[in-house]
UniProtKB/TrEMBL annotation:
Protein name from the UniProt record: Orn/Lys/Arg decarboxylase, C-terminal domain
InterPro entries: Orn/Lys/Arg_deCO2ase_major_dom, Orn_Lys_Arg_decarboxylase-I, Prn/Lys/Arg_de-COase_C_sf, PyrdxlP-dep_Trfase, PyrdxlP-dep_Trfase_major
Orn/Lys/Arg decarboxylases family 1 pyridoxal-P attachment site domain boundaries: 38-116, 118-250
A GO MF label: catalytic activity
Native species: Lacicoccus qingdaonensis
Superkingdom to which the source organism belongs: Bacteria
Cofactor entry: pyridoxal 5'-phosphate
UniProt entry keywords in alphabetical sequence: Pyridoxal phosphate
Gene3D superfamilies per the UniProt record, alphabetical: Molybdopterin biosynthesis moea protein, domain 2 (3.90.105.10), Type I PLP-dependent aspartate aminotransferase-like (Major domain) (3.40.640.10)
Xref: SUPFAM superfamilies: Ornithine decarboxylase C-terminal domain (SSF55904), PLP-dependent transferases (SSF53383)
């Protein structure tokens, strides 16, 4: 029972969560209202997720209340299902997709499956482009909580220029939850918006919602959601979407901003530096005299688990604190006080030689995870800079999906 033992181990540590899901080990939100007995299936009275007419239609209508004018569909297979469905729903309506800035692998998987033509552009470039018959795919906010400066303008220009806009709001289900938070792209009329409720709101992993503002497009989306999503939806996940949405509606921000400030002050008193992001629920932390990769190891050791590490620092997803939350804040402070900074910086470990990859064609897309943004796509050629980045990330133990297949392919060829 390895998995069960590992989970029990984390529970008894007890682990402190600075990562998704937003319920932070069930200390934030109202998921205690769920009962294991709620793991039902589509029996009489529980409706049909892919053709909802009863309680699930009511759930969707409840979600639609977030942005009047939008239709919503609860999803149990995460935002990935919504992104794949969105690309399929638009593939025959547009000549080309335009992927703006970095995008999650699910975007590339959708484009790969459909075989659709696409190009990559930056959010600055898009403002000068001819957009007719194109579909833009934007990621907003980013994994680290950054917004897009000209979001309103980009969407406005796209609509006026005859382009459709898909927004991957996986990290923004809590957009607009209170003053100071980022505004959703739905405020500006994006055509399809997909949000992971499970990331920043207190919902179970897998909980997402798809929003569309056109009935015909919504129907096409429903067709593809039916293709990609399980036909045995988890009612625990569906119920958690309802609870998270109620949480969103009831949220009062005072407690959140007070506790956020307390955490940032505490970190600074211990010689941490804190970088704030556009999303107030994301911060990036560093500590003088060590790399972020060493810092995350030290935090893990103390059972304080972070969301991600990059060269910029360690990313924390802050809890959406509310009155009555059960988040172990004093325990967090005690552990931060006692952190031991001895040990070797993984930066001192020598990197491996992957120079044989330079110039070779990637046989599989390589994706550092997290954040899940591809660094090179299958069919592209490894450059010196890409290989350098891969070596750098690997000796910092960043997980790299797809790299082993490339190494195996060319290492063998090289050895013969
Ligand atoms: C930007 C982005 N989009 C989409 C996804 C996929 O979301 P989900 O895990 O809900 O399928 C992720 C997951 O990390 C992501 O970071």
């Amino acid at each position: 029972m390895r998995l069960i033992n590992k989970l029990n181990e984390l529970r008894s540590a007890p682990a402190i969560s600075m990562h998704v899901p937003g319920h932070k080990n069930m200390t934030v939100g109202n998921l205690d209202r769920l009962n294991w007995m709620d793991d039902m299936t589509e029996i009489t009275g529980l409706d049909d997720l892919h053709s909802p007419e009863g309680v699930l239609l009511e759930l969707n209508e409840f979600l639609s209340g977030k942005y009047p004018g939008y239709m919503a569909q609860a999803v149990v297979n995460g935002t990935t299902t919504g992104i794949l469905s969105a690309i399929y729903a638009l593939k025959d309506k547009v000549d080309q997709f335009v992927v703006i800035d970095d995008a999650h692998k699910s975007v590339y998987h959708g484009l790969d499956l459909t075989g659709a033509s696409f190009q990559k552009k930056s959010s600055e470039e898009i403002l000068t482009m001819e957009l007719k018959n194109k579909a833009l795919i934007l990621t907003y906010p980013t994994y680290s909580g950054d917004g897009i400066k000209d979001l309103a303008h980009i969407i406005e220009k796209s609509r006026a220029g005859g382009a459709a806009v898909i927004v991957d709001e996986a990290h923004g289900a809590h957009n607009d939850i209170a003053p100071g938070f980022l505004p959703s792209a739905m405020n500006y009329g994006a055509d399809i918006v997909v949000q992971s409720y499970h990331k920043m709101l207190p919902a179970l992993t897998g909980a997402s919602a798809v929003f569309t503002n056109d009935r015909q497009l919504h129907r096409t989306m429903m067709k593809y959601i039916d293709y990609f999503e399980t036909s045995s939806p988890s009612y625990l996940i569906l119920a958690s979407i309802e609870l998270a949405h109620q949480f969103y509606n009831d949220f009062v921000h005072t407690e959140f901003y007070d506790r956020r400030l307390e955490i940032m002050d505490y970190l600074q008193s211990l010689d941490f530096t804190v970088i704030e992001s556009d999303d107030p629920a994301k911060i990036i932390i560093n500590r003088e005299g060590m790399s972020p990769y060493q810092l995350i190891d030290i935090l893990d050791e103390a059972h304080i688990y972070s969301e991600m590490v990059t060269d910029e620092g360690v990313l924390w997803c802050l809890p959406l604190f509310h009155v009555g939350h059960g988040y172990p804040l004093s325990s967090l402070f005690e552990r931060l006080d006692k952190l031991s900074y001895d040990g070797t910086d993984p930066a001192l470990v020598r990197g491996e030689d992957l120079s044989f990859l330079i110039g070779k064609e990637a046989v599989r897309t390589v994706v550092p995870y997290p954040p899940g943004v591809p660094i090179i796509h299958a069919g592209e050629h490894f450059t010196h800079d890409i290989v350098k980045t891969i070596i750098h990330k690997r000796y910092y133990h960043v997980k790299m999906e797809g790299i082993e297949d490339n190494i195996e392919c060319y290492k063998v060829e090289d050895d013969t």
